[in-house]
């Protein structure tokens, strides 16, 4: 059994930013564990630009953004171990992992969970039909095209309008494929507005809202996909079917935080986000275990992942110094029009500055106000020209304003 002060599980953008912030906050004995051969996580296959505008004030590709953090982590001398799969994490922060060198076990003073997320597979979607070749998640297709130089197909239909699905519609088109349509079950897109414009509208690719796949044709290989409009309770409407001959179906139907390790450690999970329940320091229900990035809740911009992860790293370092005072816990709840809020608890006594509440609205709205209220009294109000589920919203609150009772974040639609 080896000892490490701080173990960061995951070497993607969240893990790199957390480890670097922990080192800058005085943490010395830090180890990053990454299951892939390279650090950088999903950014390595995101060769499109649009990253870094908030963090570095310039537009970067995914590998360039990861490279900035990799350079800083290496300059700080933070050890990393790649090709290492963490098998388990216990409530007493014992980490067991396997690598080509064999099985290893560490006893950690603190742990940061930064495992990211995965795509929802076809098996979770209940699409009728056989299981032919040609059905891929959008992320798998992105890896095939961008890292392995393989084109999954020539005639494509995409189910789901999350950001990766929108980006792959453009990417497949640029590689010479024909994208017939992007279908979305909901009456609105789950992606960023800029991606809808740049990836679909600029290339003349139809976005079919309130549509889903009702049939996949083909046995050895996909030969066609049938789409149908759905009603208000998301049931296909008979007579609205349309069949698209194609050889490929890409699925972009949501992301799921990778929380098997969290669950095994006894970490309480939020039923809406699928990630850990945390306080303002991003500490989970298990003392000394922190969470950040897409394993906590799925983000829209990697810049916000890095910002959040840096907070986790600083507070993990403070935990190791035992310099975190404890006080009362105030619950943070989603109110009208809000799907979820992170963090789920606040402790004003333990806060070392303003607290950022991150959340998503339940459906698209026009002019509105985002409010944080306690006992019926509004503590903060932020007006927005529009809000949509695809874009994360934030409110920054001074903990000194907090009294007793739960804090509620709500949406008010304005005329």
Automatic annotation (TrEMBL):
InterPro entries: FAD/NAD-bd_sf (IPR036188), FAD/NAD-binding_dom (IPR023753), Metab_Enz_Cyan_OpOx_G3PDH (IPR051691)
Keyword match tRNA-binding: no
GO MF, one annotated term: oxidoreductase activity
Entry keywords, A to Z: Oxidoreductase
Keyword Cell inner membrane: no
Domain FAD/NAD(P)-binding: from-to ranges: 5-297
Any Pfam family hit: Pyr_redox_2
Cross-referenced PANTHER family: ANAEROBIC GLYCEROL-3-PHOSPHATE DEHYDROGENASE SUBUNIT B
Protein name, per record: FAD-dependent oxidoreductase
Organism: Candidatus Avoscillospira stercorigallinarum
């Amino acid at each position: 059994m080896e000892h490490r002060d701080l173990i960061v599980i995951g070497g993607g953008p969240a893990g790199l930013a957390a480890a670097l912030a922990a080192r800058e906050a005085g943490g010395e004995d830090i180890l990053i564990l990454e299951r892939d051969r390279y650090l950088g996580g999903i950014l390595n296959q995101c060769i499109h630009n649009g990253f870094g505008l908030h963090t570095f004030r310039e537009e970067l590709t995914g590998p360039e953004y990861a490279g900035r953090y990799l350079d800083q982590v290496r300059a700080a001398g933070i050890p990393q171990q790649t090709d290492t799969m963490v098998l388990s994490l216990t409530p007493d922060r014992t980490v067991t992992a396997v690598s080509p060198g064999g099985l290893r076990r560490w006893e950690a003073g603190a742990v940061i969970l930064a495992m990211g997320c995965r795509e929802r597979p076809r098996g979770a979607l209940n699409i009728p039909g056989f299981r032919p070749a040609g059905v891929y998640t959008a992320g798998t297709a992105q890896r095939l095209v961008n890292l392995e130089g393989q084109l999954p197909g020539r005639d494509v239909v995409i189910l789901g309008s999350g950001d990766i699905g929108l980006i792959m519609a453009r990417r497949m088109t640029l590689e010479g494929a024909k994208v017939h349509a992007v279908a979305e079950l909901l009456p609105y897109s789950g992606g960023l507005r800029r991606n809808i414009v740049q990836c679909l509208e600029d290339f003349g690719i139809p976005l079919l809202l309130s549509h889903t796949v009702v049939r996949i044709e083909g046995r050895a290989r996909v030969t066609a996909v049938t789409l149908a409009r759905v009603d208000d309770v998301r049931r296909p409407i008979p007579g609205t079917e349309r069949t698209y001959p194609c050889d490929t179906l890409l699925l972009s139907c949501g992301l799921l935080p990778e929380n098997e390790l969290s669950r095994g450690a006894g970490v309480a999970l939020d039923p809406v986000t699928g990630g850990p329940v945390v306080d303002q320091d991003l500490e989970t229900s298990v003392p000394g275990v922190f969470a950040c990035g897409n394993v906590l809740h799925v983000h829209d911009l990697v810049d916000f992942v890095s910002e959040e992860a840096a907070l986790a790293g600083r507070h993990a370092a403070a935990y190791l110094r035992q310099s975190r005072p404890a006080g009362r816990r105030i619950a943070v709840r989603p109110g009208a029009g809000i799907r979820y809020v992170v963090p789920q608890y606040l402790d004003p006594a333990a806060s070392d500055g303003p607290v950022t509440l991150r959340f998503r609205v339940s459906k698209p709205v026009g002019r509105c106000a985002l409010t944080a209220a306690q006992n019926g009294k509004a503590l903060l109000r932020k007006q927005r020209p529009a809000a949509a589920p695809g874009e994360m919203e934030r409110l920054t609150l001074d903990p000194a304003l907090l009294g007793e009772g739960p804090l509620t974040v709500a949406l008010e639609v304005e005329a």
